[in-house]
Design brief:
By secondary structure, the protein is an alpha+beta fold. Helix content is about 30%, strand content about 25%. The chain folds into three domains: about 230 residues, Glycoside hydrolase, family 65, N-terminal domain (Beta-galactosidase, Chain A, domain 5, Distorted Sandwich), CATH 2.70.98; about 350 residues, Glycosyltransferase (Alpha/alpha barrel); about 70 residues, no CATH class. α10 packs across α11 and α11 runs antiparallel to α12. Belongs to the glycosyl hydrolase 65 family.
């Protein structure tokens, strides 16, 4: 069906596994449709490795039923354009519709409505049942009822166990519209809509403010419209469109829906952001989705897409890491090192909360991954304020110090070594000189050095010396990068590891070495491994213009996308995290960086498009670069660019596109420029 809307997913039955139901999430609240719990951002309960998202009982956990209707037709629809899920019962004389959404302008509010509409001239009452799972209690919160407010019931309480001893126990305040067992459309009524609100916040004032604001919008008949408008604006600003197979276009819109549901609104001091876990805010109960902890999945796999499309949200993600810097310093100190070591699993404090010690002790590349995100952000925004005034520099410096203290000098090789690590490939541990870990450490030190110079700060000599002399294993004979000292070709690998040297790290190497790395690791990477792996092979083959090979890897991702709501699973056998945003982030990077050839460098944004045969056109509505928003449309024949918006404060840098052939095209706001598809770059205009 080439005509289908790629952003609306409809089914007549729900998947058998409730984990595959779609999620409804804002920056602050998340749930899965028909589930009896929801989660609030940053609200974890449990000490150290047991800390998990606290279950908040959810008034939205209910199903609508039509008693007495003989086998009514039912449908379930996720509309990713309006950020709304609906369940419709179609009876001979009427339709009943249950609509649910996480409100995107009032982020402390979730809502649902039930609408009954008469289709014939009958005058008898029509009743639907509401089968609710809601019980106002929780295993994670000490909830106490409070007085009703504007017709809403009220409960409040704190989490039971802090993450660190003596640490804060976040509060939850919830107001909700009481839910009757049934709703009836009177004999004289043609149509009626009932609205039900749930407000959840960290304080009584905020919960009441949000609930009142929601009631006022509901009374004016604009509660849903106001949400849909805010959500549509976000979707428009981050829009990616492809001309290609419907399944690919649906997967793309599904990924954008789930990933954009998880991003913060523009960074606001009153609402700190709490990071994005692999399965998002709707998941993370104890025993599910890694307990809702934040990994490198956020910084390496999701962040680059958010950065190019919505840098203000990217900044808020970095601020989550800045806020947890003290916890990262404690982690380094506990292991006997200087500076800051970001945890393998992070929750509210930045202290290590991974339940199994080996990962926190050995999978140390995550600190470098965090810094790569800071570097990409700085290169695309030149936002010095984040570093000078908002704590970014202290974080960069602390990670550089950590890497210096984590290295040892090898007299024999006259190089620095990092020993006893677990690389991204978790099938191996206690290895020396993981190629990826050492390469990312080198990136950290180079970035810290460049950043210090830009901020006119002194540069410690050891940063430059160690970046120059750190060992990144290389096999001169076979011309490829062994995964670590002593890796023998053919040994199985869990997931993308060495291939990440080419992208995102852009570690210097020839096209021949890049090809050899891909050839060496492609056949030995576990086909049952996590979903983001194949996207990085796809990016590598696109770089080398091996378009069909790239497509065959991108196609592997489809075995991780479930029907009918395009919810991703971590592993193709259905195990691991669900609503796997990490895999979606990798998939989006194939489109946003692979098909376009976009690469973020210190001085420019490179482009070098490459499409597999079945894709004819890609349009990115708004690539953000140095304060400009660019609409970029690419076909095999031509590239068209237009600056659609420029920031005033701080003023945007004027841009130009330069082709490798030397041709230059100034990019002025409101003027469309096109040129034959060829490699080049976008940079600050020298004028």
């Amino acid at each position: 069906d080439g005509e289908g809307d790629p952003g609306v997913f409809t089914a007549t039955a729900l998947p058998g596994d409730p984990r595959l139901l779609p999620t409804l999430t804002s920056a602050f609240l998340g749930t899965r449709v028909f589930r009896d719990i929801l989660h609030a951002a940053g609200v974890y309960s449990g000490a150290a490795g047991d800390t998990h998202r606290a279950d908040v009982p959810s008034p939205l956990g209910l199903r609508m039923a039509a008693p007495g209707a003989r086998s009514p037709a039912q449908s379930f629809t996720l509309d990713t354009w309006t950020g709304t899920f609906s369940h419709t019962i179609q009876s001979p004389g009427y339709t009943a519709t249950h609509q649910l959404y996480a409100h995107h302008s009032l982020v402390h509010l979730m809502a649902f409505s039930i609408t009954i509409r008469r289709l014939d001239g009958s005058t008898h009452p029509i009743t639907v049942q509401l089968q609710s799972l809601f019980v106002p209690q929780s295993q994670d919160l000490d909830l106490t009822p409070g007085p009703d407010f504007q017709g809403a019931h009220y409960i409040h309480g704190q989490t039971l166990v802090p993450e660190v001893e003596g640490g804060p126990r976040p509060a939850v305040h919830m107001l909700w519209t009481p839910i009757p067992r049934r709703l009836t459309l009177g004999g004289e009524e043609r149509e009626r809509c009932w609205q039900f609100l749930t407000a959840v916040a960290g304080s009584e004032e905020e919960a009441k403010r949000s609930y009142s604001a929601g009631l006022a919008l509901a009374a004016a008949g604009s509660l849903h419209r106001c949400h849909a408008r805010a959500w549509a604006a976000l979707r428009r600003g981050c829009s990616l469109e492809l001309d290609g197979p419907l399944a690919l276009r649906q997967a793309l819109q599904g990924c954008l829906y789930y990933l954009l549901s998880a991003v913060p609104p523009r960074d606001s001091p009153g609402m700190p952001f709490h990071g994005i876990s692999p399965g998002g805010l709707s998941n993370g109960t104890r025993g599910e989705d890694y307990w809702g902890h934040v990994f490198w999945d956020q910084d390496t796999w999701m962040f680059p897409n958010i950065l190019l499309l919505y840098p203000e949200a990217a900044r808020a993600i970095l601020q989550y890491r800045i806020r947890t810097l003290e916890g990262a310093r404690s982690n380094a100190q506990e292991q006997g090192y200087e500076g800051a070591k970001f945890p393998w699993e992070s929750a509210a404090t930045g202290r290590e909360v991974c339940p199994e010690e080996i990962y926190g002790a050995q999978e140390i590349h995550v600190s470098g991954d965090v810094l790569v995100a800071f570097e990409q952000y700085y290169c695309t925004t030149q936002d010095q304020k984040l570093f000078q005034e908002d704590g970014g520099w202290e974080l960069v410096e602390a990670v550089a110090q950590y890497w210096c203290s984590r290295m040892v000098w090898s007299e024999e090789e006259q190089l620095y070594h990092i020993r006893g690590v677990m690389p991204p490939d978790e099938y191996h541990s206690h290895v020396d000189n993981s190629a990826y870990t050492n390469a990312v450490a080198r990136c950290s030190l180079n970035f810290a050095t460049d950043m210090a110079r830009d901020l006119l700060l002194p540069v410690p000599e050891e940063w430059e010396e160690r970046a120059r002399k750190i060992k990144v294993p290389f096999d001169e004979e076979r011309k490829y990068h062994p995964e670590y000292d002593g890796y023998s070709p053919g040994e199985p690998v869990k997931q993308a590891d060495v291939v990440l040297l080419g992208f995102p790290l852009m570690h210097p190497m020839s096209a021949e070495v890049r090809r050899n790395d891909l050839e060496m690791y492609e056949p030995v990477t576990d086909p049952g491994g996590p979903a983001m792996t194949w996207s990085m092979f796809a990016v590598g083959w696109l770089e080398l213009k091996e378009l069909q090979r790239a497509w065959s890897h991108l196609e592997k991702c489809f075995s991780n996308i479930t029907e009918p709501f395009k919810v991703w699973v971590e592993n193709s056998d259905g195990s691991g995290a669900v609503n796997f945003l990490t895999g979606m982030g990798g998939f989006l990077q194939v489109i946003l960086f692979g098909f376009t050839g976009f690469r973020i460098t210190r001085s420019s944004l490179l482009f070098d498009p490459a499409f597999p045969d079945n894709i004819t056109k890609l349009k990115v509505s708004s690539v953000s670069y140095l304060g400009n928003k660019l609409e970029v449309t690419i076909t095999r024949e031509e590239i068209r660019m237009e600056v659609t918006e420029t920031s005033q404060d701080p003023p945007a840098f004027p841009l130009e596109a330069v082709l490798e052939s030397g041709q230059r095209f100034p990019l002025w706001e409101g003027q469309s420029v096109s040129f034959p598809t060829a490699p080049g770059w976008i940079q600050r205009s020298p004028s």
